[in-house]
Design a protein that fits this description.
This protein is mainly α. The protein contains eight helices and no strands.
């Protein structure tokens, strides 16, 4: 396929998501790659909005991305992170559970769910999640934090 078609299809998809018109049957069969690229773009936008404390817009962007890729565990984990920022604990938990179900090797989902379990004072579940994070990513960016959290949990359980 030529560049013109890809650009046109991408613009059609953007216009449809902006609500300016509906997608036709032919347009709905856009390539998985194009949908994935646009979902990644929306996820990056969601992160920028979250970093700027605009959590409602961040949530809207990640929801749009999930329409395109409902089986993407990383997107579910991202939405869980936004729910954490909004203090929507149960929504966050549901999203992290879905992320782990779809992408069991995505370490950050375990880490964030472990933090949520810790907030909710479910120390056993937090311990399991931090251990799972370390199993999947023993040298990951949050490995030291996960190890420290496990020590804190052990200390709290021994008191």
């Amino acid at each position: 396929m030529g560049k013109k078609w890809c650009v046109g299809a991408f613009l059609t998809l953007i216009i449809a998501f902006m609500g300016l018109r509906t997608i036709t049957q032919e347009e709905s069969s856009l390539s998985a790659t194009l949908k994935a690229d646009y979902a990644n773009f929306l996820a990056k936008e969601a992160r920028v909005y979250a970093d700027n404390f605009d959590y409602a817009t961040a949530l809207a962007r990640v929801n749009q991305a999930l329409v395109l890729q409902p089986e993407n565990g990383i997107l579910w984990a991202l939405r869980g992170q936004v729910h954490l920022l909004l203090y929507e604990w149960m929504n966050a938990l549901d999203d992290f559970n879905r992320a782990i179900e779809l992408s069991p090797r995505y370490a950050l989902a375990y880490f964030y769910r472990g933090n949520l379990h810790y907030i909710l004072r479910d120390l056993e579940s937090a311990k399991i999640d931090f251990t799972s994070y370390l199993t999947v990513a023993p040298n990951g960016n949050f490995a030291t934090t996960a190890r420290n959290s496990l020590v804190s949990i052990a200390n709290e359980q021994n008191q």
